[in-house]
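Dear colleague,

Thank you for sharing your sequence with our group. We've completed the structure prediction you requested, and as agreed, I am returning the results in plain text so they can be pasted directly into your records. Please verify that the sequence below matches your submission; if there's any discrepancy, let me know and we will rerun it promptly.
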Amino acid sequence: MTAIRRRGLDWLLNVYGGLALCYLLLPIAVIIVFSFNNPASRFNFIWEEFSLDAWKHPFAVPGVQDALENSIEIAAFSTLIATALGTVTALALVRYEFRGRAPVNLFIFIPLATPEVVLGAALLSQFLNWGSPKLGFATILIAHVMFNLSFVIITVRSRLIGFDRSLEEAARELGATPWQTFRLVTLPLIMPGVLSAALLAFALSIDDFVITNFNSGSTITFPLFIWGAARVAIQPQIYVIATMIFLVTVAAMIATVWQQRRAERMASVRPDEPEFALEPARA
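Please find the predicted structure tokens below.
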């Protein structure tokens, strides 16, 4: 009887998981399907007929290419800055005991719990009080780095918590400098966490609307372009670009997971072989 109940519970959990997954993927599936639509009006809301015209000319809508370029540039720069600063901050929080460490850990979670409307308005007020001459690319970049930092720190710190410090000590005993130890031992081992944090930061940045809307000025990003265009027309090209972004993101995630599993397999096959070579310390 217990085995039957267990199988029934497993079946219910599988069904629930499948329904939840379908619920999450349904809007994405609609976007992909309607990117092949040939609407009879300006709004691509009702399926008419299959067409590849939008895929042949994805940037036919005026202004969409510039908006997409702005989003990609802001996402790329904010990801690089937030990942670098967040990784260093996570290392400091995990490795060193310093005064104020507990409040810093608390402050990291505040941007995650604060509504985006509040963060956007607060940043706008801050820029205006600082006498910022013009809202635009720079203010959006600063805002995106700010809210991405928390996600990067939390992701990298979770990787560092289970880090084996004895590997670093062994490298130092073999004569490695602190920079060599970080470059050859620490960074490769925490790289999966760093890459995951970078992908998360890029995804959050490229589709942010609320905070960007407060601090954009005359700079138009892809989400802002869609918001403005929705009041006039929704062309299939917008669905095409959204599908491209989704496919690139999925490909990057698959490549990251494959690299992590490949590294784990190599470590399990050759557990006794060192992954770095350092000259022994001289007497």
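Summary note from our side: The mean pLDDT is 85.

Kind regards,
the structure core
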